[in-house]
Specification:
The chain is of the alpha/beta class. It has helices at 51-57, 59-69, 87-90, 128-134, 200-213, 229-242, 273-282, 291-294, 305-311, 325-332, 341-348, 355-371, 397-400, 413-421, and strands at 3-9, 32-38, 77-79, 82-83, 101-105, 114-119, 150-152, 170-174, 186-189, 195-198, 221-227, 250-256, 316-321, 382-386, 429-431. Helices cover 28% and strands 17% of the residues. The strands form four sheets. A nine-stranded mixed beta sheet has the order 4-5-8-6-11-12-13-14-15, sandwiched between helices. The structure holds 2-acetamido-2-deoxy-beta-D-glucopyranose (NAG) (5 copies).
């Protein structure tokens, strides 16, 4: 049969040297993963033929997989904060003028030259008042005075079984303290006369520059990722990030829960427009918005991913729930519309929605599916659009890769992203059916 079967050490990522058996590292049975390698491709993960074939060929090794993948043990690590050097001179500061920060965990082994950069999310501030009070956010969303060490989990985790493709990469979690998706460049004045710094773009540039010096500049592979407002930032910056590296370096982007839709809410209005309009104007985001869109549409409309993805040229993976809990709560059923008890319980938990409400939410899903049609024709892109009521699925062990992880095509998110990342010849473009069709959407997922 026209296929060869390899066992790879699961740390190997997409290293082409693994295409020959002799080039493989010594390995222990505990860390093996199966690789099915079609002759023409550069795939580095099991693909194509069914698990059944693998079971027949390599029964003992295949038998090891489930207990290892699903074991309960976690290897989450707390990673300290590094403040950006020379932040004030570069004007790359948080809303309150303090230096921004990031958490860096060094890679090891064959991951030492690979870099994963995660841009944190956390909504936006769209008015002077919002941005002023955000400076006091105890989560540090406007000031590094409140930033604490954080736990690395999910795609940032160090457990090889839970995170086989990225566990030993250099991993960076960039703190979000500008309120403008790492994209603004302006100043404002708070009510009390103090200066408000809208410097997300400078923060992004200065942090990447500093990381370049710390080894990112020598990367052989890099993945720019982020969640929510950080997922949106990932789309805004994917191409300019890619442009910082020589052609032979593999650069990809993964936008998690950043696919914000321009939709009408339960009142029939686009209440959310005021947020995006406020951010774009107050924080001066024009520089990062696609020029061809700005020529035709209002700036706020060009801040929506449905517009952004049309012009992105780098390989991108879009991970989102078609019933994204954040968008249901803040875009579709915003508190400002004083929703009745029934809507409140529906946005609290999708299980509580009545049939009229589900129809409305399915309309939202259909808009997302339509907006993603352009991805069909984008060859190196990946999709994982599940129907679970959740938000931010890469940075949580449970969603990323566990018995409770949402599955599409029987793949967990970690498996789907891994297959896409390794340039599998088979498509990794999965769109789930309508809620509640997917039995893998569990109650264990982050709400
Ligand atoms: C925010 O913090 C500043 C200085 O730490 C303080 O003066 C101000 O009253 C605080 N504002 C709010 C709304 O808590
Ligand atoms: C990049 O690699 C070169 C050659 O190995 C080395 O001299 C240099 O210090 C490295 N730079 C960084 C930022 O790691
Ligand atoms: C569902 O709840 C909404 C909001 O309260 C209400 O307008 C609608 O009539 C309800 N639909 C059904 C089928 O109960
Ligand atoms: C789905 O994946 C699980 C775990 O990887 C495996 O045990 C199961 O047999 C697969 N099911 C199908 C239908 O392929
Ligand atoms: C992942 O989500 C679950 C469910 O909400 C939560 O209990 C757990 O603390 C989360 N883990 C991390 C690392 O955030």
């Amino acid at each position: 049969m026209g296929h060869q079967y390899f066992i790879r050490s699961s740390s190997s990522g997409c290293d082409p040297t693994l295409l020959s058996l002799t080039a493989m590292e010594p390995r222990t049975p505990q860390t093996e993963q199966l690789l099915l390698h079609p002759e023409q491709g550069r795939d580095c993960r099991a693909w194509g033929l069914s698990a059944l074939v693998l079971l027949l060929l390599l029964p003992s090794a295949a038998g090891l997989l489930p207990p290892l993948l699903f074991r309960a043990q976690r290897l989450e690590t707390t990673v300290p904060l590094t403040l950006l050097a020379g932040a004030q001179e570069k004007g790359a500061v948080c809303l309150d003028g303090t230096p921004p920060g990031y958490h860096l965990q060094r890679g090891s082994g064959d991951g030492s030259n690979n870099w994963l950069i995660h841009l944190q999310g956390g909504g936006w501030c769209s008015t002077v008042q919002d941005c002023s009070s955000r400076r006091n956010s105890s989560l540090g969303l406007g000031s590094s005075n409140f930033m604490k060490p954080i736990l690395f989990a999910g795609i940032l985790g160090s457990d090889q079984q839970l995170n086989p493709d990225f566990y030993n990469w250099n991993k960076v979690y960039v703190r979000y303290c500008d309120g403008g998706s790492f994209s603004g460049d302006a100043e404002g004045q708070a009510q009390d006369g103090s200066t408000l710094y809208f410097r997300g773009l400078r923060i992004y540039e200065a942090v990447i520059d500093e990381l370049m010096e710390k080894g990112l500049g020598n990367a052989t592979q890099a993945l720019l990722t982020g969640c929510s407002a950080g997922g949106l930032a990932t789309m805004l910056h994917c191409d300019d990030f890619s442009a910082k590296f020589p052609r032979e370096v593999s650069i990809k982007c993964l936008a998690d829960a950043g696919f914000f839709l321009d939709v009408k809410d339960i009142s029939g209005e686009r209440t959310f427009w005021s947020v995006f309009d406020g951010v774009v104007q107050l924080q001066n985001l024009r520089k990062v918005l696609p020029k061809d869109c700005l020529a035709k549409k209002k700036p706020k409309e060009c801040f929506f991913p449905a517009e952004l993805i049309k012009s992105i040229r780098s390989p991108m993976f879009i991970l989102n729930s078609a019933y994204d809990s954040f968008q249901v709560r803040y875009v579709l059923i915003p508190d400002s519309l004083a929703p009745d008890k029934s809507w409140l319980s529906c946005k609290e938990n999708i299980r509580n929605c009545n049939s009229t409400q589900m129809e409305f939410l399915n309309g939202f899903r259909n808009t997302m599916v339509d907006a993603l049609k352009v991805v069909e024709h984008k060859e190196k892109w990946g999709l994982f659009i599940d129907s679970c009521f959740t938000h931010c699925q890469t940075v949580n062990d449970t969603s990323w890769n566990s018995p409770f992880s949402p599955r599409l095509g029987n793949k967990t998110i970690a498996e789907a992203v891994g297959d896409w990342h390794c340039g599998s010849s088979r498509r990794v473009k999965e769109i789930d059916c309508e809620y509640p069709c997917n039995p893998t959407c569990s109650r264990q997922l982050p709400p």
